[in-house]
Structures are given as structure tokens and as C-alpha cells.
Amino acid sequence: MKDIKKLLTELKDYLLITIGSLITAISINVFMVPYKIAPGGISGVATIIYYLTDAKIPVGIAMLVLNIPLF
């Protein structure tokens, strides 16, 4: 019984993390990038790289590359 509760708790956590990540990705692609707003943190640096390279490096790839050293 404890294993099932633990599994359901972990599934809920992963689901909420996935939903939060999707909301963040949508907000960056719908609001930040088209209106040239650079938010704080890694996503802001990735947005700046996107505009400095004339959109040759996508924001998502730049965020992935910039986040690798942080883990």
C-alpha cells in the first residue's frame, strides 16, 4: 500500500513539473521572444543569444547548452 502511495505521489510530482515546464516554454515562445523581451536568468541569456546570432541558434537549444554546466 505504501508503494502505491509513493508511486502516485511521484507521478503527481512529475506531472506537475511537466505542466510547469510546458507553461514556461509556451510563455517564452509566445510572449518573450516575439516582443524581444529578455527575462532574467538562463532564458534571458538564451534570448539575447538568439537575437545576437540573427535567429541561427534557437532559444531552446541555447537554454539546453547553458543549463548543462549547472547540473
Describe the structure.
Helix content is 72%, strand content 0%. It has one domain. It has three helices and no strands. The protein starts with a helix and ends with a helix. The chain is elongated and about 55 Å long. It is mostly helical and 71 residues long. The model has no long low-confidence stretch (mean pLDDT 93). The longest helix is centred in the first third of the chain and has 31 residues, at 2-32. It has helices at residues 2-32, 42-52, 59-67. It holds the Pfam family YitT_membrane. Its main location: membrane. It is found in: Cell membrane. The chain crosses the membrane at residues 14-37, 49-70. This is YitT family protein.
What is the number of beta strands? 0
On the 0-100 scale, what is the average pLDDT? 93
| Percent of residues in helices | over 70%
Overall structural domain count: 1
What global shape is seen? Answer: elongated
Q: Which sheet architecture does the biggest sheet show?
A: none
* Unreliable spans: none
Protein name: YitT family protein
Pfam family, one: YitT_membrane
Subcellular location: Cell membrane
Membrane topology: Multi-pass membrane protein
Topology:
Elements: H1 2-32, H2 42-52, H3 59-67
Helix pairs in contact: 2-3
